[in-house]
Amino acid sequence: MTATELRHDWTLQEARELFELPFNDLLFRAQSVHREHFDPNEVQVSTLLSIKTGACPEDCKYCPQSGHYNTGLEKEKLLEIEKVVAEAQAAKQKGASRFCMGAAWRSPSKKDMPYVLDMVKQVKSLGLETCMTLGMLKEEQAVELAEAGLDYYNHNLDTSEKYYSHIITTRTYQDRLDTLDNVRKAGMKVCCGGIMGMGEDEDDRVGLLVQLANLPHHPESVPVNMLVKVKGTPMENVEDLDPFEFVRIIAVARIMMPASHVRLSAGRENMNEQMQALCFLAGANSIFYGEKLLTTANPEADADMLLFKRLGIRPEQREQCASEEQEEEAIAEAVEHEATRHMFYDATRESA
Ligand code: SAM
Ligand code: DTB
Ligand code: SF4
Questions:
Q1: Residue 185, beta-bridge partner list
Q2: Do 298 and 290 touch, CB atoms closer than 8 A?
Q3: Where does the chain bind [4Fe-4S] cluster (predicted)?
């Protein structure tokens, strides 16, 4: 089978036409493209850790960590390296192949860089892929991170250029594009996507996907977040997105960036298993795995492994990661744990 070629010249009209396809036609097309590039039954598994929480100077209207809003979040200083390494070890044990470290910074300071570089080295030495999201990076900072062995840098465009100023005023779309350029030039893989359900319209969703697909290289990883509405942020009462619209976004992202991992990212707590299964069918092939995202809840790891088992999905293997045997063990343990938890839960309910 010849794989669909990667294009960087998508027009808004072409992307709109994909969105407007009948749902079944869109999903069939997305799944067909998906199968040209990936094993359809494998999903990459990343675990997130907030290494510096809250009091961020930026004013992103969706974010519980912005210092501009009162979300009751307890702020924390940069975590000690030992703590980060212990969390990474635990994530690996549970079957994650990539460890993503996030900081509530506008950009990393000179003083913090040495700690961050050491974190990269130590987490990488555990045999995990490394990813960081620390805000804007200058060219030299990107080079330093790449030299320390950082595999991926996450930096989201979040929405269309047109809608961006409704969401963030403390930095520009161009600032974000400049950081992405610095990351690419330093030789790291790019993780870049956005958030859906922030009151944007379909043209903004199309606009974001066109922007991503027309970058000189497609981001290797495209996180599609569904807004987690946090009390105290300006977005706490924004209207819910139609779940089918969200599945369509995944499908269009898959078609426009056929060789990228599309991550079903934040917001899974508010999706049922059927919706998640539809997202996998539409071409999502990565998730955040573990009970916590950065500051908000994510499904229980055991429940995710059980869902994988029910759908016949395997966590994607990475070269430097756990052996197949270790991963199978982690899944078996998780499934066993989940099954037992349900048994106890049911017993208690019956006797109550
Ligand atoms: N401060 C850095 C930055 O913004 O680049 C890194 C951390 S920031 C929390 C990483 C990403 O998390 C944001 O770009 C945004 O896409 C996502 N995010 C933050 N709050 C969210 C929410 N409430 N719902 C969904 N995604 C969210
Ligand atoms: C991304 O696109 N989503 C992740 C990760 N990159 C860093 C973050 C989601 C954060 C959700 C809100 C929270 O937990 O604070
Ligand atoms: Fe700060 Fe990142 Fe949150 Fe924006 S998304 S407020 S930059 S932590």
A1: none
A2: yes
A3: 56, 60, 63
Pocket test for ligand 1, best of 225, 229, 235, 293 (most atoms within 8 A of CB): 225
Stated as kind and residue range, the H or E segment containing 45 is strand 42-52
Is the CB of 58 inside a 6 Å radius of any atom of ligand 3? yes
CA-CA distance, 24 to 105, in Å (whole number)? Answer: 42
Six-digit token string for 302:
């055991």
Half-sphere exposure at residue 242, Cβ-oriented, CA atoms within 13 angstroms: 6
Q: Average pLDDT by consecutive 10-residue portion of the chain (352 residues)?
A: 80 96 98 96 94 94 95 86 93 89 96 95 92 97 96 97 95 97 97 97 95 96 97 95 97 97 94 96 94 88 89 81 51 55 40 30
Backbone angles phi, psi at 13, to 5 degrees: -65, -45
**What local confidence, expressed as pLDDT, does residue 298 receive?**
85
Superfamily of domain covering 12-318: Aldolase class I (3.20.20.70)
pLDDT of residue 343: 43
From 48, 47, 66, select the one nearest 57 (Cα to Cα): 66
Task: Decide if 190 contacts 183 (C-beta within 8 A).
Answer: yes
* The token pair that represents 163 in the structure block: 């809608």
Quote the CA–CA distance of 128 and 106 in Å, as a whole number: 26
Would you list the DSSP string of 265-314? Answer: -TTGGGS-HHHHHHHHHTT--EEE-SSBSSSSB---HHHHHHHHHHHT-E
Could you identify the residue written with the tokens 């974190």? 119
Q: Which of 98, 171, 191, 254 is labelled catalytic?
A: 191
Q: What's the alpha-carbon Rg for the chain, to the nearest Å? A: 20
Residue 131 pairs in a beta bridge with: 100, 152
H helices of 59-169, in order, are 81-93, 113-124, 139-148, 161-167
- Annotated domain spans of the chain: 12-318
Which of 293, 295, 296 has most ligand 2 atoms within 8 Å of its beta carbon, as the pocket-test mutant? Answer: 293
CA-proximal residue: ligand 3, atom 6 (nearest): 66
